[in-house]
Amino acid sequence: MGKVEDERAFFSEAWIEPPQKPQKKTVEAEKPHYHGHRDRLRERFLAGGPDALPDYELLELLLFRLIPRVDTKPIAKALIARFGSLAEVLGAPASRLEEVKGIGPMVATDLKVIAATAQRMARGEVRGREVLSNWTQLLDYCRSAMAFEAREQFRILFLDKKNGLIADEVQQTGTVDHTPVYPREVVKRALELSASAIILVHNHPSGDPTPSRADIDMTKQIIETAKPLGIAVHDHIIIGRKGNASMKGLLLI
User: Fold this and answer.
1) What confidence category does residue 11 fall into, taking pLDDT thresholds of 50, 70 and 90?
2) CATH assignment of 27-119?
3) Topology of domain 130-246, per CATH?
4) pTM listed for this prediction
5) What 3 state SS string does the chain have?
């Protein structure tokens, strides 16, 4: 008897729960709260341009694409608080960017790519043009390339007879407060490139662009080495986060 009951139970149709209708998601559940903020921020940017947004909101716009499903406002504010400005965020080393919560290796690399793209655009504005008549663009380029470096860099801009930019090279990278510079090497490279003039540029990681006595003495040595060979030194520019200084403008050379 038990065997028959078992067989009947085996071959009988099992009860199947009727399918339940999926509950409709609310608009709030489908769309996180920060999506409306993103839309409004884009609209403000399109209506007023980049000057209509403070640094942290412009940084938010960049992070929208890099971190698509996260509220990026706190991250943008944390980056600005840590480094001081949008320019300083983009100029910071990737390793330091990763110290900020929400920024991983991929996002840090993407920010450095954006910074490199901006620098390439700035360099394109001055390459091949008469540099002395585009001084503001030249300073903007140097600032984007060097102002927020953690170590000193000594850069040389090589110019042709019409003061057009032939090449832009970082000759030396030093410590936080010193870069070794060799006047003979500077002049040698200028001769290799057939440059008629050069502009010297270096940064002060401390932020203060005031020339030091060592900066002035080194510049005079380069001028004395270059002059007999027909190579002019137009200026020595010092770049800092707080501004820039021209030795020629300060009547130091």
Assistant:
1) very low
2) 1.10.150.20
3) Cytidine Deaminase; domain 2 (3.40.140)
4) 0.67
5) CHHHHHHHHHHCCCCCCCCCCCCCCCHHHHCCCHHHHHHHHHHHHHHHCHHHCCHHHHHHHHHHHHCCCCCCHHHHHHHHHHHCCHHHHHHCCHHHHCCCCCCCHHHHHHHHHHHHHHHHHHHHHHECCEHHHHHHHHHHHHHHHHCCCCCCEEEEEEECCCCEEEEEEEEEECCCCCCCCCHHHHHHHHHHCCCCEEEEEEECCCCCCCCCHHHHHHHHHHHHHHHHHCCEEEEEEEEECCEEEECCCCCCC
